[in-house]
Amino acid sequence: MTAVTTAHSAPAERRAPGVRAAVTGLGVVAPGGIGVRSWWETTLRGELAIAPVTRFDATGYPATLAGEVADFVDEDHVPAKLLPQTDRVTRLSLAAAAEALGDACLDPQSLPDYAMGVVTANSTGGFEFGQRELQALWSKDRRHVSAYQSFAWFYAANSGQISIRHGLRGPSGVVVSEQAGGLDAVAQARRRLRTGVHAVLTGGFDSALCPWGWTAQLAAGGMSTRGDAERAYLPFDADASGHVAGEGGALLVLENADAARARGAAVLGTVEGCAATFDPAPGAGAPRLLAAARLALADAQVDPADVDVVFADAAGERDADRAEAAALAELFGPYGVAVTAPKSLTGRLGSGGSALDLAAALCALRDQVIPPTAGAVRVADDCPVDLVTGAPRPARLRHALVLARGRGGFNAATVVRGAR
């Protein structure tokens, strides 16, 4: 298995004739719900899943709130033999993988060898596992460091463990592009389908809610230090003060649409367009989120007028929010399309955040309803976006555009269409 980073300057590729990427299964483990149904119901109710950190004592840290996956019992989702060799993020992803495959009614063992692979995104690795082994090293000695530290911390651990657990021997890899990673992984999986692979399990997960991970996230900047969960993460709000970190994500079964229908699979939606760009160095040019959105629409062969809802990156930082709002206004016109940021309910989940937004977009297309942004958000005058807040908004939805920006200049955009 190889670690893969996406090319963030190449133009979007054209769809090969007869190959469409269908989503036939979803798996979610996120703040607000374990499993798609539980999480989606919580999301539509607009229930805030941000609260004081409980996974470690955060009293002495500037930021004390997080979006945690509550009530996740490792033993209920992971075989006992895997517990000593896996970090929490891998356990969360294993649970989502099992749900996604079950939702797709797809047994990988029924497929030919090498017909199904796995491509996941991860931006922090197994921070908690690594911290525990480092503590053992400095408090005891090297004999007390687990041999599993050699791989449990690695970004590719999720893909590797999922591959082994389900016998996914086809083309596989991992993408490292922070918040953009979930979308980049799906784009990579879509390219695999075009080479003749039957199906790919794809998406993103992150979890770094431990002192070492928390310190790293604080050092990177952008985290809100407010203690009021209702006011800590307010994307597009004039009072925005940064984001709240979280854990979790989503995995999708991406399948050749013709093959999926041939086996009688239910198709939730299709991935119609993917694109990625990379921002220039600070001061060397404009951010390229708008370019990514345009490339994704071109790849999907749809116009801006065909997009009915945008799932925004929603950084929660004033400059970044203004930049995203300006990009949306240029593409759709001021207040020209419904915009939502359900991640305001969960916090930003690293690579898992954009994958979860993609899952939300597919559920929204299925149910013809737009989930709300956290009810406390009041849109700033300099952010001309039609932000859905307070309650779900019923709407006729054909296409959704999902946007994501990763720390360091990554931009990604994906266009999905509901099942026809």
Automatic annotation (TrEMBL):
Superkingdom in the source lineage: Bacteria
Domain Ketosynthase family 3 (KS3): 18-418
Keywords: Acyltransferase, Transferase
The family this protein is said to belong to: Belongs to the thiolase-like superfamily. Beta-ketoacyl-ACP synthases family.
Keyword flag Membrane: no
Any Gene Ontology biological process: fatty acid biosynthetic process
InterPro entries: Beta-ketoacyl_synthase, Ketoacyl_synth_C, Ketoacyl_synth_N, PKS_Beta-ketoAc_synthase_dom, Thiolase-like
UniProt xrefs under Pfam families: ketoacyl-synt (PF00109), Ketoacyl-synt_C (PF02801)
Protein name: Beta-ketoacyl synthase
Organism of this sequence: Streptomyces cellostaticus
A Gene Ontology molecular function term of the record: 3-oxoacyl-[acyl-carrier-protein] synthase activity
